[in-house]
Write a structure and sequence with these properties.
The complex is a heterodimer of chains A (about 525) and B (about 180). Chain A is of the alpha/beta class and about 525 residues long. Chain A is built from 12 helices and 17 strands. Chain B has a domain at about 50-160. In chain B, helix 2 (about 50-65) packs across helix 3 and helix 3 packs across helix 6 (about 130-140). The chains are: A alpha/beta (about 525), B alpha+beta (about 180). Chains A and B meet through helix 6, helix 9 and helix 10 of A and helix 6 of B. The complex binds flavin-adenine dinucleotide (FAD) and iron/sulfur cluster. Flavin-adenine dinucleotide binds near residues 18, 19, 96, 234 and 270 of chain A.
Chain lengths: ~525, ~180
């Protein structure tokens, strides 16, 4: 039921990207009767198309266009051309996210106030708070069928979780459970319940896990108000002499340049492509790129403080069976500077298959120290660390004019240096994670370095004052009233929690705002 | 037995050995072929010299040694370098490796008896492009072979079998 809109129809809302932010916004607007054209660089992949094979799935879904890296993060050395592991597909990275869906803790909306001055960090309070977000979080949890919220039961724990839970309890942790997951835990929903297949990162072939790609997008299309143009890569946002945006130039499926006129443009290409598009849209009127009078576009890139801990036991675990992220320890998520850092972190189980374990356990390592770890792959358990990292002005996405993509557009360079707070927090988390496994008899533990970024945040941040950020509390750019940012790049700070529930809640709220402003003829 | 053994298929160990020009501890090297000394597998080489292929296989095992994984998987992991485009770089790289071995008083890399002595030589070249190319290629070349997975206990795709909901996702019994 696609609704083909004319390229010259200047009353549509054009959305760039159909992931957590863009896909949800597209559906929510369509439900309210707003006509939407969504441009998506990737193709459509339905649950039956997903592949239970790590590298084949990577080839099918990952964003593989060139990018470059710099800075002291280890990713720049081990994966210099792959700063992030994110998706190019209808549904964006929600196609292969794990599904962990946590609300921010109240104080995390006010990081600058709560943490005080942190040397070298560009901390800022969000212009919104927990009370304001509460109803939007509830709507997001209902949309995603998040377990342990509403009437939805928790998922059962798999082997990886049972080891993790036993260790956590032995250590005295209290807030330990099978997570709040956007995965159906019973048969009462519109989609099947989790069959414990264990390939959540490769796309859920059952459709038990929520994805914007096969949930929100078809819902939006069914209204007749949403047209999704796949394999359509937005290259430039155009504006008029009055400084209002007028449409989007994009390369269509056949590589031909097209122009879609629009009343409003919403950018939701994830935290590298969104600032890239704003910067690549520079004009004589906006020489530093669109919405960049503050100079903040591309800055304050955050990726969460991450790392993993794997452990080998003397008996089998078979961690790959069942949900990839099967449980959580939340006791360390609090803000407690007595640990030597501000902010907190979550510990969440994680499992990689043998092919990815070989690539990510200790990138670049070789010889028996490394291979004896893999020899005991069956006896391994694993967890991922995700904590708040400090925004820094110099951690930033810039255009690299020396490297062009297949359309001849400059790619992004991603620069990242760890902040001392990030390092202190990571070391604390490694120690605690290793202790969890040692408490249940691990014979060897591995403090594993961060993978290419899966959480990419902050490069068009939200701010009260126009000089401090790119968008206001509605995701509307401070500079251009009919230009919005609708993805994770809006994040003012990262909080300790996985970001997607918050991206979705903000997108639902933004849809409400845009529809209201449109009907009031304010934009 | 490997897939591309065409003309060598069906030969007995003695027949393979009779065609050999040299034989080391684990390989039999002949004109245009390389075989396991126990006859478990054999491959024909194309543009690479069979000695080069044998050295490459040993190097692969020394980089990612798994004693329970047979040579044939390492052979498969590096067989892709036996092409006209790749051959020159590989021959040069292996020549450098052998030169390093000679510097330490050995005849060549393959002739070194202890893994530790071979690893010492590899350590000396681990930042070089040749070593990194071989190591990087092995990460997928070796560990992404589906036939290798069961050796490590990894079960691979599970959707076709209905996931693990009824197949032991929570069957741990030792906690
Ligand atoms: C392996 C993995 C596991 C994860 N697990 C979790 C988890 O458990 N919990 C959690 O909260 N988060 C998780 N995440 C993170 C989560 O997926 C992302 O935070 C979220 O999807 C980001 O939403 P987004 O809208 O910013 O971008 P995306 O979802 O990445 O969507 C961006 C879309 O824009 C498209 N696009 C980009 N540029 C253009 C262009 N120029 N023209 C047209 N289209 C364009 C892309 O193709 C893509 O489809 C995980 C991520 C990964 C990689
Ligand atoms: S474990 Fe559950 S959610 Fe994950 S892919 Fe399998 S069925 Fe889907």
């Amino acid at each position: 039921m696609a609704a083909p809109f004319d390229l010259n129809d200047d009353d549509v809302v054009a959305i760039i990207g159909t992931g957590a932010g863009g896909g949800v916004l597209a559906n929510e607007l369509a439900q309210k009767g707003v006509r939407v054209v969504a441009l998506e660089a990737g193709a459509r992949h339905e649950p039956q198309d997903f592949i239970n094979d790590e590298w084949d799935s990577f080839g099918q879904l990952a964003w593989l266009d060139p990018r470059t890296t710099s800075g002291d993060w280890r990713v720049a050395k081990d994966f210099s051309g792959l700063p992030a592991w994110i998706v190019k597909s209808v549904g964006g990275t929600t196609q292969h996210w794990a599904g962990a869906s946590l609300r921010f803790q109240d104080h995390e909306w006010k990081a600058a106030t709560t943490y005080g001055t942190v040397q070298g960090a560009s901390l800022l309070d969000w212009p919104i708070d927990a009370a304001e977000m509460d109803p939007w979080y509830t709507k997001a949890e209902d949309k995603l069928n998040v377990t342990r919220t509403g009437d939805r039961p928790g998922l059962p724990g798999n082997n990886n979780y049972l080891v993790f839970e036993a260790g956590a309890k032995a250590l005295g942790y209290k807030d330990v459970h099978t997570g709040r997951m956007a995965i159906n835990s019973d048969d009462k929903r519109d989609r099947p319940m989790c069959q414990q297949t264990g390939f959540c990162f490769q796309g859920c072939k059952w459709g038990a896990k929520w994805s914007a790609g096969y949930v929100d997008i078809p819902q939006g299309e069914a209204t007749g108000n949403l047209e999704v143009r796949t394999q359509s890569h937005a290259s430039r946002i155009l504006h008029n002499a009055a400084g209002k945006v007028t449409g989007v130039e994009y390369f269509d499926t056949d590589g031909n340049l097209q122009m879609q006129k629009a009343r409003i443009v919403c950018v939701a290409g994830n935290s590298f492509e969104s600032p890239r598009l704003l910067l690549n849209s520079a004009s004589s009127m906006f020489p530093d790129g669109l919405a960049n009078s503050s100079g903040q576009v591309g800055r304050n890139y955050m990726r969460h403080m991450t790392g993993s801990v794997y452990a080998v036991f003397d008996k089998p675990v078979r961690m790959w069976r069942g949900t990839t992220m099967a449980g959580i320890i939340q006791d360390e998520a609090r803000h407690d500077p007595s640990r030597g850092f501000v902010g907190g972190y979550e510990l969440e189980t994680l499992s990689l298959g043998l092919p990815f374990m070989a690539a990510f356990l200790d990138p670049g390592a070789w010889g028996r120290e490394f291979t004896t770890a893999l020899d005991h792959y069956q006896n391994m358990a694993g967890m991922w660390i995700v904590g708040e990292d400090m925004p820094q002005e110099t951690n930033r996405v810039t255009l690299n004019h020396d490297v062009m993509d297949s359309y001849g557009l400059p790619v992004v360079n991603v620069h990242f240096d760890d902040h001392p707070n990030d390092i202190a927090m990571r070391n604390h988390a490694y120690k605690q994670g290793q202790a969890v496994y040692e408490a249940v008899g691990a014979t060897r533990t591995f403090p594993t370095p961060p993978y290419p970024s899966t959480h990419n945040l902050g490069t068009n941040r939200m701010s009260e004052n126009a000089r401090d950020g790119v968008v206001n509390k509605w995701g509307q750019t401070h500079d251009i009233a009919n230009l919005f940012v609708s993805d994770g790049s809006q994040f003012t700070t990262g909080a300790a929690e996985n970001p997607t529930l918050t991206i979705v809640a903000i997108a639902i709220r933004q849809a409400d705002h845009i529809a209201r402003e449109m009907s009031g003829q304010k934009i | 037995m490997m897939s591309d053994t065409s003309s060598l298929k069906g030969l007995t160990r003695r027949q393979v050995l009779s065609r050999a020009t040299s034989a080391g501890a684990s390989f039999v090297i002949g004109a245009g072929f390389l075989a396991a000394s126990n006859g478990a597998w054999a491959i024909e080489t194309g543009v690479l010299r069979p000695e080069t292929m044998a050295t490459l296989v040993q190097m692969a095992r020394d980089i990612y040694p798994h004693d329970q994984v047979a040579d044939e998987y390492y052979v498969l992991a590096v067989k892709g370098y036996d092409t006209p485009e790749a051959a020159e770089g590989i021959e040069t790289g292996i020549a450098t490796l052998n030169a390093a071995a000679r510097n330490k008083g050995h005849a060549n890399y393959l002739s070194i008896g202890w893994e530790r002595a071979r690893v010492d030589i590899l350590r000396g070249m681990e930042d070089g492009t040749f070593f990194q190319r071989i190591r990087g290629g092995l990460v997928t070349g070796l560990y992404n072979q589906k036939a290798v997975w069961p050796i490590f206990g990894y079960e691979g795709a599970s959707f076709e079998q209905g996931g693990y909901i009824a197949r032991g996702f929570n069957d741990i019994n030792w906690l």
